[in-house]
């Protein structure tokens, strides 16, 4: 079964072939047939002139009627407001008599009881310092001076000359052989026989 992608490709290819063939047919048609003959210009018809239109008379309108002036209504004057009644004067505030301050007797503060006097601190008698007998430090015995031992001198080592090292001969390596690739094998394909 053909997929949608290949179907769309086939349709596009068919449309291209058809458009190419139609274009080539149109080109062939233009080559075979001569060009169109020149069309003669038609004479312009002469129209009669427009008839003169007579001007219409302007209608005379009557003048605007005059509007009579309306009399201004006279407004009554503002009525006089009656005076508000006078507020009667209030009597002055009564004076509050000052109350006598009661004299309270101060309470008698009791005297604190007397603290009995304590006897003076007893004097502590000084204790006599005990005299310790001085201990006799024993004298250390004198260390006898030892004579320094004589250090024996080491015998001098004679200088031995370094032996001459003989030079080793340089070993020359033989040259490496060049790697040769094997020859490419030749393939002989049989020629296809023609179909009978």
Automatic annotation (TrEMBL):
According to the UniProt entry, the coiled-coil residues are none
Q: Give the residue ranges for region: Disordered.
A: 36-196
Query: What does the UniProt keyword field contain?
Result: Signal
- Output compositional bias ranges, type Basic and acidic residues: 181-196
Name listed for the protein in its UniProt record: Uncharacterized protein
Q: Which N-terminal residues, if any, form the signal peptide?
A: 1-26
InterPro entries, alphabetized? PELPK1_2
Write out the biased-composition intervals (Pro residues).
Answer: 40-51, 59-99, 105-131
């Amino acid at each position: 079964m053909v997929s949608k992608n290949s179907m769309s490709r086939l349709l596009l290819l068919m449309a291209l072939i058809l458009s190419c063939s139609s274009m080539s047919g149109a080109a062939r048609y233009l080559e075979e047939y001569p060009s169109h003959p020149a069309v003669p210009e038609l004479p312009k018809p002469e129209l009669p002139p427009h008839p003169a239109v007579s001007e219409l008379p302007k209608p005379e309108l009557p003048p605007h009627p005059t509007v009579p002036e309306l009399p201004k209504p006279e407004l009554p004057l503002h009525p006089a407001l009656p005076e508000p009644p006078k507020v009667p004067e209030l009597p002055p505030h009564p004076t509050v008599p000052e109350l006598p301050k009661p004299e309270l007797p101060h309470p008698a503060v009791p005297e604190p009881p007397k603290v009995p006097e304590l006897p003076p601190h007893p004097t502590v008698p000084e204790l006599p310092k005990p005299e310790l007998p001085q201990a006799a430090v024993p004298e250390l015995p004198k260390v006898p001076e030892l004579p320094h031992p004589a250090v024996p001198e080491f015998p001098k080592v004679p200088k031995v000359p370094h032996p001459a090292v003989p030079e080793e001969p340089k070993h020359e390596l033989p040259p490496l052989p060049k790697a040769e690739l094997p020859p490419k094998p030749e393939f002989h394909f049989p020629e296809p026989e023609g179909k009978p």
